[in-house]
Amino acid sequence: MSRKQKIKELVENFRALRRSMAFHTPGALNIPRITPSQWGVLIYIERRGKSTVKEVAKNLHITSSASTQLIDGLVESGYVVRETHDKDRRAVTLTLSKKTKAQVYRMNKERQKKFLKFFEILTEKELDQYIMLNKKIVERAVKK
User: Is 36 exposed, middle or buried (0-12, 13-18, 19+ CB in 10 A)?
Assistant: First the structure.
């Protein structure tokens, strides 16, 4: 298999892993599905306490329109609240809804369980190697 074919296979594996990370929150069948990109928005807002569309776009390395599209879905589902400022109606602050704060905690725990399950097939030595190789790739990626 050529290097190009190996990289193609690796990319497909990344996509499959990403698709498998979309989930419902435990015990809440009426809660809409969260995509990995939406999850990234929720985590970013949760860590900051509040944010703007531009800050989300910059942090996720996406366009403002893509950020708006993600946020619109989260607002519609009740995960995120948009608040306009009285003095400047154009300024919009994003916060997590009250229900979302508790859900994000549960979703974090659920996601951690999924990752533990994914990597349980690796020995400690293999996991250490994977971490080392992944770190090497990430360091190269952030330099660009």
Answer: middle
